[in-house]
User: What shape does this take?
Amino acid sequence: MNYKIGIIGNRDAVLGFMALGFSVHEVSSVAEATKELHSMARSQEYGVIFLTEDYAARMEEETARYRDLPLPAIVSIPAPGGSSGYGMNNLRQAVERAVGADILFKNNETAQTENEERK
Amino acid sequence: MAEIRVNPTRMEMKSYQKRYQTARRGHKLLKDKRDELMRQFLDVVREDKALRERVEAALQQVYGGFTVAGAVSNPKMLQEALIYPKKEGSLEVDYRNLMSVNVPVFHLHVHAEGNSDHYNYGMAFTSGELDSALRALNGILEDLLRMAELEKTAQLLAEEIERTRRRVNALEYILMPQYLQIIRSIRMKLDENDRGNTTRLMKVKDMMLQAQMAQNAKAEEEDSDPA
Assistant: This one.
């Protein structure tokens, strides 16, 4: 089955993705973004939905609903003006959830990570 | 720990011993599963982390390019230039079974119209910055999808690991000790019964011996009496 790729975000963030053939949803408020997100997810036509970080950070609860479903994959990408680290933070949370401790971002010594793994 | 009342019989003990063995086997299997899941998970997360760093940096450049392009040309024109996609991307989703967790795998199919450069506008009214920004964006498209795939995989694996870990802990710290406790209490009860039985037998034997001795003594007395 073929899916669409969606992107939600501010106008200046999503404009370029139009040219790639993404299905672009331009929003200007969190409420709008939330509405778009849910209707896109419900339609089941989307495999991946990109969401800019400025919205994703304020839509934690909404995105959490789809976290444990295989589809759609909701991925936060940085908004223009720099990455806020929200995407990385998400990843760190996943690690914490799985391992019980943040072993990947605290330090980059792989040896120690390897040790934790063994336990 | 909540005490569970069971019949202190040999049969009951046998059945609990069997259950304990099953629990131990399950515990070992789940533990192995958890370790392997963890290994896969960390691989995924590491790759995702590197990819995200790269993509985020690249995206900033793309945004910068678009901002410049927006500044040097009319915003309306910019949107007009971009709004009609020359390529249509559709996403095919396969599922991969990773330690019995179904994770999606994304394949991008690009249907390009005509000759396939990725500029979907004429060169006359747009700036060069737009071209390069668009080219850069095109370049990270694959990475973006790979990142989506990895991130989803990481989330699904994290959930599975959490669940498996909980099961392992439940077996290790609740179920198995409980079974052991039950088995021990049955065994003690049985042993106690056994000891009770032995003492009773000894007592009975004692009584019988005494009765015998009394009888013997009486018989002796009777033997010696006429004389």
Q: What stands out?
A: Residues 103 and 116 of chain A are 8 Å apart (CA to CA). The beta strands of chain A are 2-9, 23-26, 46-52, 73-77. The mean pLDDT of chain A is 79.
